[in-house]
Amino acid sequence: MANVVEFLKESYTEMTQKVTWPTWTELQNSAVLVLVASIIISLVILAMDESAGNALKMFYKSLA
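The structure corresponding to this sequence follows.
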């Protein structure tokens, strides 16, 4: 039990004194960057999916 209490004390000290927390502006900038990157990646995946789907449709039509 003493090890758990010691761990919690050290964790609290590290989180309050040793960790450098981002400012609100840095946090907002990071959130916007993640949002934009997610949108771009999802659009790329959508384009790949649509291209593959269209290619398969053309392939199956050519077999019929």
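The helical segments are 2-18, 24-63.
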